[in-house]
């Protein structure tokens, strides 16, 4: 690693394709996933960690006293929802850890590349003062900084 690099790695095209293939395979196991837009999210009743015990208590009570429940309450569907929520939460923990690593690695690689690019640009600016051969390179690179 040159300079103060945060990361030095390469991902082969084969490995990248294999990763994408396996992500698609995982997606195939989750055909029921839904998309919810931000407006719908704001209007939905949400179950956070604190609400889980409330939901579990209600489900258990409904199972213990089914005669108290109207026919519109589908306790079995509720059990499926609870189970799915817990299973997806466990999967999410693993994916979140992986995504955090990917995000951090992307940031480190991008930062390393930017720092090296800044050094290259600085060297070309100095070199262009000594030789006009590099002025066109500096002019082209400097376009990034124009407003």
Structure description:
It is a single chain. The protein has one domain (13-145). Helices cover 69% and strands 0% of the residues. It contains 5 helices and no strands. It has helices at residues 13-28, 38-43, 49-64, 75-130, 135-142. Helix 3 packs antiparallel against helix 4 and helix 4 (75-130) packs antiparallel against helix 5 (135-142). The radius of gyration is 27 Å and the shape is elongated. The mean pLDDT is 94.
Rg, rounded, reads: 27 Å
Q: Estimate nothing, just give the exact number of structural domains.
A: 1
- Helix-strand string: HHHHH
Number of strands: 0
Q: Report the major sheet.
A: none
Mean of pLDDT: 94
Features:
147 residues; mainly alpha; elongated
What layout of secondary structure does this protein have?
Blueprint: H1 13-28, H2 38-43, H3 49-64, H4 75-130, H5 135-142
Helix pairs in contact: 3-4, 4-5
Summary of the model, kept short:
By secondary structure, this protein is an all-alpha fold. It contains 5 helices and no strands.
């Amino acid at each position: 690693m040159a300079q103060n690099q945060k990361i030095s790695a390469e991902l082969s095209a084969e490995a990248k394709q294999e990763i994408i293939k396996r992500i698609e395979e995982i997606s195939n196991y989750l055909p029921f996933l839904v998309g919810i837009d931000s407006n719908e999210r704001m209007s939905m009743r949400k179950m956070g960690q604190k609400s889980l015990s409330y939901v579990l208590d209600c489900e258990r009570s409904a199972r213990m006293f089914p005669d108290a429940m109207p026919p519109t309450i589908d306790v079995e569907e509720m059990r499926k929802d609870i189970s799915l929520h817990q299973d997806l939460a466990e999967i999410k923990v693993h994916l979140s850890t992986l995504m955090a690593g990917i995000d951090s690695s992307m940031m480190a690689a991008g930062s390393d590349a930017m720092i090296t690019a800044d050094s290259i640009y600085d060297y070309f600016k100095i070199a262009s003062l000594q030789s006009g051969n590099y002025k066109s390179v500096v002019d082209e690179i400097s376009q990034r900084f124009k407003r």
